[in-house]
Design brief:
Length: 201
């Protein structure tokens, strides 16, 4: 049994997309900010009081990158874990580390002084984007020529970043995100999230 804790107005949309890619049945439980997300019942699952969280056969997985990686490993029949594990771990955690930190700081208006860039793991947002663009200019997907779970995570960060003006819409990013948005699982997950959002309102 997979139980998915989410809110449609959060990055849990990334994990929701991954669940649709995996194609296994799951139960969705929507939590509200400040109330059910901070209730004792949910804090027993995720003490951080945030989403997403996934419970699989009694085991708790939190953090979006961990959930995406876990699902790729737990359901190998979905074919979302590439044979090149080195590339997968490299790009998945480049997304969870430098990309996420750089984009978050951009959204918060945090500017790292050039002389202090060595103190942060990403250096600068432009450097992070250069690395991503260079990789996507060489390959169709982030780990090579085949779609993988890393594209769900890294691709979502790029797509969300362009939507919220925290990542510049370089042509290579726009082309990549356009390919990902055509996937049936992405379309299905997005429709499910939008339906949950409409239900809340």
């Amino acid at each position: 049994m997979l139980i998915f804790y989410t809110n449609p107005q959060s990055r849990a949309r990334i994990s929701h997309w991954m669940l649709e890619e995996v194609g296994q049945p799951y139960e969705t439980r929507v939590l509200e900010y400040g109330t059910t997300m901070k209730a004792p019942e949910y804090l027993a699952i995720n003490p951080m009081g945030k989403v997403p969280a996934l419970v699989h056969d009694g085991q708790v997985i939190t953090e979006g990158a961990a959930i995406v990686t876990y699902l790729a490993d737990a359901f190998p029949e979905a074919g979302l874990m590439p044979t090149n594990r080195a590339a997968f771990y490299r790009w998945m955690f480049f997304g969870a580390g430098p990309v996420d930190a750089a984009v978050t700081n951009k959204a918060l208006g945090v500017e790292v002084p050039p002389e202090r860039r060595g103190m942060v793991g990403y250096g600068s947002l432009s450097a992070v984007c250069d690395v991503l663009a260079n990789q996507l200019e060489k390959a169709t997907y982030i780990c090579g020529d085949r779609f993988s779970a890393a594209d769900v995570y890294v691709g979502s960060l790029i797509g969300f970043g362009m939507s919220f003006n925290t990542i510049e819409p370089r042509p290579v990013f726009s082309d990549y995100w356009a390919r990902l948005k055509q996937r049936p699982a992405y379309i299905s997950a997005n429709a499910l999230c939008d339906a949950l959002l409409a239900k809340e309102n």
